[in-house]
Amino acid sequence: MRRHAAGILLLTLAAAASGRGQAGPNDRQRPDPDAAARGRNVYVARCINCHGLDVKGTENGPSLIRSVAVLRDFEGSEIGPAMAATNVHAANLAEAERVDVSHFLKLQIETTARNRNPMEPPDVLTGNADAGRAWFNGEGGCNACHSAIGDLAGIGGRYRPSDLQQRFLFPRGGGRPETPTLVTVTPSGGAAVSGTLEFLDDFVVSLTDADGAYRSFRRTPELVVETEDPYQAHWDLLDRITDDALHDVVTYLETLK
């Protein structure tokens, strides 16, 4: 009788495991390079400001290298529910985007596992400082807002090269003071209202006006919304800066000590 009960228990456990559909070690997701390349673009546009350039997290978001959801994910199966369970993701990724991001993150995990060196950050000083100075003052147009002897004086001595790269690409976040984005909202047939942007998506725009009053507007085709983001030049750089130029500029900034 006991032997019969034990057999039933074993069959029940096996059926339960099969029903969960858990992938075994031979069924793990192998990163597809093309999907990972697309996923990288999605990550840069939607995730990098909180989870960091190296996917290892910032003060605004956790590491995704050690994320249980990412480790268990298979073709986006865990990423979607994990994002939906939080309140910080304003818009969930489309299914195809989740799959691509999954491949990108899996590739990052494998790369990290192959190149473990917890004592040293990645070497990003692979560029040419003179070329970086020329790009900074020329094609990049960085000197329109910044100065090597002004606001950037000594910056190379205050930050690690990897942090310089992160701050150059994504100046917001990291617990440092920020210049707010300004917004002007003009209702149809009404007076324009200006102030500091508090929230903006496809449905609502909110601001705090000069008197400290919080104002919120439902976005309609007739509502005109104009923003003035002090970091717009940095966002524009993401579409045109090359890897070589990026490493040249970071190498140049590191010399400003």
Overview in brief:
With about 260 residues, the chain is an alpha+beta fold. It has helices spanning about 1-20, 35-45, 50, 70, 80-85, 95-115, 130-135, 155-160, 160-170, 230-235, 245-255; strands at about 180-185, 195-200, 205-210, 215-220, 225-230.
Give me the CATH fold name of the largest domain: Cytochrome Bc1 Complex, Chain D, domain 2
CATH architecture annotation name of the largest domain:
Orthogonal Bundle
In N-to-C order, the SSE pattern is HHHHHHHHHEEEEEHH
In total, the number of strands is 5
Strand content: 5-15%
- CATH level 1 name of the largest domain: Mainly Alpha
Number of helices: 11
- State the domain count: 3
Q: How many strands, what sense, and barrel or not for the largest sheet?
A: 5 strands, antiparallel
Choose one word for the global shape: flat
- The residue-averaged pLDDT reads 79
Helix content: 40-55%
Structural class, from helix and strand content? Answer: alpha+beta
CA-based gyration radius: 24 Å
**Uncertain stretches:** 1-26
Cross-sheet strand order for the largest sheet: 4-3-2-1-5
CATH superfamily of the largest domain: Cytochrome c-like domain
Q: What distance lies between the first and last C-alpha atoms, to the nearest angstrom?
A: 80 Å
Keywords for this entry:
257 residues, alpha+beta, Cytochrome Bc1 Complex, Chain D, domain 2, 11 helices, 5 strands, 11% strand, flat, disordered N terminus
